[in-house]
Amino acid sequence: MSQPMSQPMSQPMSLPVEFAALEPYTDWVLASERERYAKRLASSMAQMQAFYDAAFPLLERATAYLEQFPLGDLPEAERNLLLLMMSLVMVSFPVEVWKQARVPDSGAAYLDVVAEPRV
Fold first, then answer.
1. ∠ CA(16), CA(13), CA(42), 5° rounding?
2. Would 48 disulfide with which of 21, 39, 91, 108, CB 3.0-4.6 Å?
């Protein structure tokens, strides 16, 4: 069964209750690397920093929580949490290292992901 790319903004996005503090950042629940990259480029450093500051302290707990579910059969809330953590990875280098959304000194280079894990 194929999953939607992302949910419309009008529908509330569910997360496991243990991670309710991340609900203000569910606009980062995006199903593909391309969507996550586009969101990163369209976001300000302040927006990325706020997301990072809220999500990073929960990364280890989220990882341990998600490990109890089979990857190919995640319930919706857990799938959303996984996708949110994937977006956290997408913003980690801009926040921690580059201090900008784009890769420094990369020119017009772009790498397309041709296969992604199915979640």
1. 120
2. 91
d(CA 59, CA 7): 23
Q: What is the pLDDT of residues 49-98, one digit of tens each?
A: 999 999 999 999 999 999 999 998 999 999 999 999 999 999 999 999 88
CA distance 22 to 37: 20
CA distance 27 to 39: 9
Cα 46 to its chain centre, rounded Å, is: 16
Furthest-apart CA atoms within the chain: distance in Å: 42
> Would you mind telling me the total number of residues written for the chain in this entry?
119
The span from the CA of 51 to the CA of 88, in Å, is 8
Separation CA 82–CA 84 (nearest Å): 5
Q: Name the token pair of 29.
A: 């629940």
User: Which pair of tokens denotes residue 96?
Assistant: 């921690």
Say if pTM beats, i.e. exceeds, 0.90: no
Rounded CA-CA distance 54/91 in Å is: 12
